[in-house]
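Researcher: Hi, I'm a grad student and pretty new to this. My advisor asked me to get structures for two proteins we've been looking at. I'm not sure of the right format, so I'll just paste the first sequence and hope you can take it from there.
Model: That works fine. Here's the first sequence with its structure tokens right after it:
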Amino acid sequence: MQVTNSQTRATVMTTGQVARVFSVNINTVIKWFDEGKLAGFRLPRSNERRIYRESVLTFMKEHGIADELLRNFEDTHKARRKGRKPGSASAGAGTSAAASGAELRIFPRKPVELRAHIQSGLEAEDTPVVVRNLSLGGAFVTGFSSSRRLIPEEFRLIVDGTDGAPHLDTTCEVVHVRRTDDQGLTLGCRFTRVDPRTLQSYLASI
């Protein structure tokens, strides 16, 4: 891929950063790059790729994806580089660590109550659950239980559609687990494989 003078001065991103913007697996970003859907360059003597920020914006425009995803990521990345971590002195007196974490969250959560199913290699059948929070980055799932007392590291999450809307089919990985009073579990999940445009449309429909 030819690099122009204007591109050499452009802001570049790593494949990992682009993956976090779109909430997809890094291999998906590499595939987009290799297919020419994202412009950039390879580092000398390395398989590492660098992607132009403007190319990411163009990709978003071509696929109808809000550029807010990129700007939210950049704001969060900038805040972390400045050291505004949860519980730090800059958070101000009386501000909890949880609140500070919310300020640094890349994707705002949308409170919902949607029926869903979890499919994983650990369970022979679908496990019914309820999605309480949903965002472009992941979901908060309640009511999970396993007869084998095993928690999948990665699983398929299928969320029911509402008012005739199609269901949402994603792949997630577990970020954190909490036990509830009824001996069930709540799972904080991050999307690893999901079409950003489909997810954005789904969030807009609920």
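Researcher: Oh nice, that was easy. Here's the second one.
Model: And its structure:
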Amino acid sequence: MTERRILREDEAYRILAHYIATAELHTIEPPHYAGRRMVEGTLPLIDAMIRDGDAGSRAWLETFKADLQAAMAARRSDAGAYERFLHEAPGRIAREIKRREE
């Protein structure tokens, strides 16, 4: 985890724009939309991490991204699945960080 990785400038701007637009939209949209928009905003970051990651990182990120997209797709028909994913995701990420530190 000590390798330096840098987003391309266009990637960084897209992520920046997404998060700022999400914050602004949160002032006029129903509150439950903000979480969805935040999750959507992680996809370009995950894609950049997959592109530049080592094989182990890519495999974990690809699985995480697939699970994220499945949870997003199920959000309307199975809100519980989406919420379970969100509740479990921080722990999954923390375990991966610990694994990478070993």
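Researcher: Is there anything I should tell my advisor about the second?
Model: You could mention this: Residues 9-101 form one domain.
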